[in-house]
Amino acid sequence: MRFAPQPSAQLRLIACLLLTAGVTASPAVSAGCPDRCVCDDQLVVQCAGQHLTSFPVNLPLATRQLIISNNRIVELPPLALNYLSDLVYLDCSNNSLTEVSESTFGNLRKLAYLDLSFNTLHRIEDRTFGPLSSLVMLRMTDNPGLSVIHPDAFAENEALQVLDVSRNNLTFLNITSLIAQPGLRSVGLSGNPWSCQCDTEDLSLWVHLESFKFQGATVCDSPADMQGRRLGEVGIQLRTLCHQTLGSWDYLFFVFIGFVIFAAGTVSAWLMGVVMVLYERYIKKKDDQINLENEDEGDETGHMSRGRKDRNNRSLQTSFTV
Ligand SMILES: *[C@@H]1O[C@H](CO)[C@@H](O)[C@H](O)[C@H]1NC(C)=O
Ligand SMILES: *[C@@H]1O[C@H](CO)[C@@H](O)[C@H](O)[C@H]1NC(C)=O
Ligand SMILES: *[C@@H]1O[C@H](CO)[C@@H](O)[C@H](O)[C@H]1NC(C)=O
């Protein structure tokens, strides 16, 4: 990433080297330079502000820095880009890019700096930056329609130190994978229409707890009662607000369950009572029936004993009634 202070001197030097050493440079290096671009001996290809509408062709394969900013390029062709496996620095800012995907950067394992600012990206999918294992700085600001960044978009960028997603159209950012990045030291979130509701609680608390990492004023845009408040200041409020809501639902649930248990208990007790009463009546009826039957039987077989008993009973009754 060094910039040659005296390009003419450097050029002369490399010319001398090439002349004296013969053509020792690899074919990749001597493959020429794209139209309207300037290629130097430091393997820097500079194509900024050249009214390009497509990705430059005929790039030296050993290119380490590629600057294609301030053009109207609409697409980064994965095939052409991924030949540049030595690329360390890629500036695509201020173009008309609408899409980047996992295959766009599939082979750029040495890339440390990527700038996608001032484009027209709409969403960043899972693993878009996954192959960029050396990525240290990612600038992706000023994409006015960029409203979705997948939770795992940066999950594999363990070298990431600086992330700037300022001035996009983000209302929400899932920080689960970002918060786990060990080296992350600067995050730009300002100028997005943050929606400060319960799902933004984690982000707010992160901004609150590690405010030194966050650049610029980051404020809520919605809901109405949160508008204009700093993102880092609403975290605590969201925490109580959102968990209280959850708690009251829990309480409601417990009250409901309690009522159900109470009602079930009452109903089953009543049912049991009814069953008991019916059963008792049934038993009584059966006993009476058996007694009647026994009496009938007694008339025929146990005549004597029963007759005596009955007589005793009757004498008892008469003595009582007297
Ligand atoms: C974007 O590039 C155009 C030229 O293509 C230039 O006029 C404009 O100032 C640039 N905008 C930014 C924000 O750099
Ligand atoms: C930003 O997102 C909102 C929806 O969240 C959408 O209505 C609006 O059109 C978007 N803005 C731009 C510039 O795309
Ligand atoms: C963030 O993403 C993770 C994994 O994709 C998910 O488990 C979690 O619920 C998400 N958090 C929010 C607040 O949506």
Automatic annotation (TrEMBL):
<dbReference type="Pfam" id="PF13855">
    <property type="entry name" value="LRR_8"/>
</dbReference>
<keyword id="KW-0433">Leucine-rich repeat</keyword>
<keyword id="KW-0472">Membrane</keyword>
<dbReference type="GO" id="GO:0005249">
    <property type="term" value="F:voltage-gated potassium channel activity"/>
</dbReference>
<feature type="domain" description="LRRCT">
    <location>
        <begin position="192"/>
        <end position="243"/>
    </location>
</feature>
<dbReference type="InterPro" id="IPR051432">
    <property type="entry name" value="KCNMA1_auxiliary"/>
</dbReference>
<keyword id="KW-1133">Transmembrane helix</keyword>
<comment type="subunit">
    <text>Interacts with KCNMA1.</text>
</comment>
<feature type="signal peptide">
    <location>
        <begin position="1"/>
        <end position="25"/>
    </location>
</feature>
<dbReference type="InterPro" id="IPR032675">
    <property type="entry name" value="LRR_dom_sf"/>
</dbReference>
<feature type="region of interest" description="Disordered">
    <location>
        <begin position="294"/>
        <end position="322"/>
    </location>
</feature>
<dbReference type="GO" id="GO:0099104">
    <property type="term" value="F:potassium channel activator activity"/>
</dbReference>
<dbReference type="InterPro" id="IPR003591">
    <property type="entry name" value="Leu-rich_rpt_typical-subtyp"/>
</dbReference>
<dbReference type="InterPro" id="IPR000372">
    <property type="entry name" value="LRRNT"/>
</dbReference>
<keyword id="KW-1015">Disulfide bond</keyword>
<dbReference type="InterPro" id="IPR000483">
    <property type="entry name" value="Cys-rich_flank_reg_C"/>
</dbReference>
<keyword id="KW-0813">Transport</keyword>
<feature type="transmembrane region" description="Helical">
    <location>
        <begin position="251"/>
        <end position="279"/>
    </location>
</feature>
<protein>
    <recommendedName>
        <fullName>Leucine rich repeat containing 52</fullName>
    </recommendedName>
</protein>
<keyword id="KW-1003">Cell membrane</keyword>
<keyword id="KW-0812">Transmembrane</keyword>
<keyword id="KW-0677">Repeat</keyword>
<dbReference type="GO" id="GO:0044325">
    <property type="term" value="F:transmembrane transporter binding"/>
</dbReference>
<dbReference type="GO" id="GO:0008076">
    <property type="term" value="C:voltage-gated potassium channel complex"/>
</dbReference>
<dbReference type="InterPro" id="IPR001611">
    <property type="entry name" value="Leu-rich_rpt"/>
</dbReference>
<feature type="domain" description="LRRNT">
    <location>
        <begin position="32"/>
        <end position="65"/>
    </location>
</feature>
<keyword id="KW-0407">Ion channel</keyword>
<keyword id="KW-0406">Ion transport</keyword>
<keyword id="KW-0732">Signal</keyword>
